Amino acid sequence: MFAYHIGTTCNAIVLPGGFIGVDIFFDTAYRGDGIHYYKKGAALYFSAVLPQLLQV
Question: Which pTM was predicted?
Answer without folding.
Answer: 0.64
